[in-house]
Amino acid sequence: MKIQLLDPLVAQRIAAGEVIERPASVIRELLDNALDAGAKTIVASVTDGGLEEIKLIDDGEGIEPEDLPLLCESHATSKVRELDDLYHIKSMGFRGEALYSIAAVSKITIASSFQGQDPYQITVDNGRKEAVLPGGPRIGTMVTVQGLFKELPARRQFLKRPSTEATMARSVLLEKALAYPERAFRFISDQTVRVDLVPTTRKQRVLDVLSLNQNIIPSEMLELYDTAGRFDLYAVCSSPALSRSDRSHIKIYVNNRPIDEYSLVQAVTYGYGELLAGGSFPYCYLFINVDPTLVDFNIHPTKREVKLRNKAEIHHQVVSMIAGQIKRSIPRLVKQEMESEDAPLLAPLYESRPAAHQSHHAGERPGRYEATSQKAPLDSEWFQKAKELLEGNRMQASRSTETDDVWAQQEDEQEFVYLGQAFNLFLVAQKQDDLFLVDQHAAHERLIFDEVRQKKHVQQLMIPLSFEVERDVDAYLLESQDVYLNLGIKLERTDDLLWQITSLPALYRNIESHVISFIQKTTGDAQEVEKGLYAVVACHAAIKAGDSVDRMMAVSLLTKVFALDEPTCPHGRTFVVRLGKNELMKAVQRT
């Protein structure tokens, strides 16, 4: 058989198969266009699962009449002018293939009013373009797609039943809605409203979407932030007390695009670590903002596959954020559980837990694909792990559940009485005739500083931690790698100005980004590096000013503080204030 050029219409339909697989693909592409047009309200509807009709209406800026004939041409776009633009993409769409592909396999009508001007519309029927005519909405754009794959029965037979296709289309809209909480979304299936989301906060949008199929208590979902690292991270995650039997609710977004990236899903699970039992997974909606030059979405037509230049660094920052902030949330979570389980007499003093958001449709049951949520009981492995973290925080943890009488015995043995916490800044203790106020952050910082100087248990990193340096630091590291190696940090140069950490002490887990920041700006001698690094590690790993400290943790910390020869932090500041009984008596004019 001789080689010959394909008929343009045949070639168009073949190419369309990469972009348009089913009604959900159409919804995805039309949503991207509406979002790029600045729409504040988007309504998507399907009839017969989208096989008969798909319609999307938005209130965006609209399309100029002279641009309508270009809409369904191949590689016609307003978002890219030259090749370099691909490396600075901020819009959702950029290929110029979406409408062209939809028009090749359906009858599509696009009606639009540009900035409130007279509306015009154009129809393209399976690749055959018609004239531009007056008519359409007075605001925004309306796209109607009819008879998808009607002229391609071989493609149509691979589609699922209408109810399944409608569910897939709905899922695509919800996925987009999670990334844009400030915009309103509505989904209609066979003239019935299935989703109606109003503008709200990011966390509330996650809760609203979850409530459609899940019975989630809002207080069990936590907000996590990390804007101090190289990448801006935000996540809405479940507490360790709430888990699933699958990873289906670990969702990753990069620059508001949902992506499939296993290493980042893995980073989320690593962040929870031993707080979740084997085979259990959290709910986590993770949003990552990166410089557009560091990510390439131009890999696959669906844009779900991406290339991230600093994947390993993002991985470690995600692990660090989740591990650190989830653990810091445990005191509040444990307190809530203790109050609800062990103190029924106090219950009337507090508001009851708010009911989870109900589905928009009474009696609607979760789909079969939904894994059941699991609530950890008070005596579960998770709460035992939580108590260890609370009590130890890098010190020796104790599993004992002592009574107040036992605490009193311990305090007598330690020759001090713990009185409580002041302003969430100071631990207050009485020792004989003296009152002590201990700066909780500085004290914990000193204890960690002493610990990291003594312990150098080094761990090999599963994924090396990559970073860039300036020219002077690059030259310094080439000559002084042994300085860091002696501190348990193994560095390797991978390219000009590019380095990676392949191993580091176990105590540095969760603060890797701060270690990198230190390396990137330090060129001192061995002694300066050692002292500076230990101070950085201690500072960022310690309890913070404003943190609530439970009794067991406070007593453990004070016991170690009173054993110090000199109560100063790594920066040289004294962190203990001592007030004698006589001083206090004089202050209130008592003798």
Tell me what you see in this structure.
Residues 418-549 form the MutL C-terminal dimerisation domain. This protein is of the alpha+beta class. Helices cover 35% and strands 22% of the residues. It has three domains: 8-196, Heat Shock Protein 90, CATH 3.30.565.10; 203-345, Ribosomal Protein S5, domain 2 (2-Layer Sandwich), CATH 3.30.230.10; 395-591, MutL, C-terminal domain, dimerisation subdomain (formyl-coa transferase, domain 3). The protein has 16 helices and 25 strands. The strands form six sheets. Strands 1, 2, 3, 4, 5, 6, 7, 8 and 9 form a nine-stranded mixed sheet that branches. Strands 10-11-15-13-14 form a five-stranded mixed sheet, with helices on both faces. A four-stranded antiparallel sheet has the order 19-20-21-25. Helix 13 runs antiparallel to helix 14 (526-541). The chain is elongated and about 95 Å long. Residues 337-383 and 389-413 have low confidence and may be disordered.
List keywords for this structure.
591 residues, alpha+beta, Heat Shock Protein 90, Ribosomal Protein S5, domain 2, formyl-coa transferase, domain 3, nine-stranded mixed beta sheet, five-stranded mixed beta sheet, 16 helices, elongated, DNA damage, DNA mismatch repair protein MutL, MutL_C_sf, ATP hydrolysis activity, ATP-dependent DNA damage sensor activity
Summed up:
The chain is 35% helix and 22% strand.
